[in-house]
Specification:
This protein has 142 residues and is an alpha+beta fold. The protein has one domain: Alpha-Beta Plaits, CATH 3.30.70.1290. It is 37% helix and 23% strand. It has a four-stranded antiparallel sheet, with helices on one face. It has a two-stranded antiparallel ribbon with strand order 1-2. Strand 1 and strand 2 form a beta hairpin. Helix 2 crosses helix 3. The longest helix is centred in the middle third of the chain and has 19 residues. The radius of gyration is 19 Å and the shape is elongated.
């Protein structure tokens, strides 16, 4: 008897698409000052999970240190990473400033919480070398 085939839980199906898209995101606060405590990191994760839910994405993993946060998000093709990042940073900045005003003010001044830049990398799935080899093998014979 052959082993039972188990569907991959990371592969999602829509009406016209089958996808498994993941991105690793890293955000740093303005001036790279370290405003994050364990409590603020927990609250930041809660806020970011809520934003991801609004975008129909999944925050798979979240962690951080005093001066940056890492996120692993699983998102559908209809979601623009730049729009997701804008909402994640905008909503979290607003909420954290509202909820921890004195603490945040000690580390950050002015109207900005996050640095305007961010790191984003696609991840998961097959290694690029395997995909490249597969595509090369698809060439039509001469």
């Amino acid at each position: 008897m052959s082993p039972r085939w188990e569907p991959n839980p990371n592969i999602h199906r829509g009406r016209t698409v089958v996808h498994t898209l993941h991105a690793h995101l890293v955000f740093t606060p303005k001036y790279r000052h370290g405003p994050f405590t364990d409590e603020i990191l927990r609250r930041c994760e809660e806020v970011m999970r809520s934003v991801c839910a609004d975008f129909e994405t999944e925050l798979v993993e979240f962690n951080g240190e005093r001066d940056h946060v890492h996120l692993l998000v699983h998102y559908p093709p209809k979601v623009s990473i730049s729009k997701l990042v804008g909402s994640l940073k905008g909503v979290s900045a607003r909420r954290l400033r509202q909820e921890y005003p004195d603490h945040i003010r000690r580390y950050l001044w002015g109207a900005h919480f996050w640095s305007p830049s961010y790191f984003a990398a696609s991840c998961g799935g097959t290694p690029l070398s395997v995909i490249k080899e597969y595509i090369e093998q698809q060439k039509r014979p001469s």
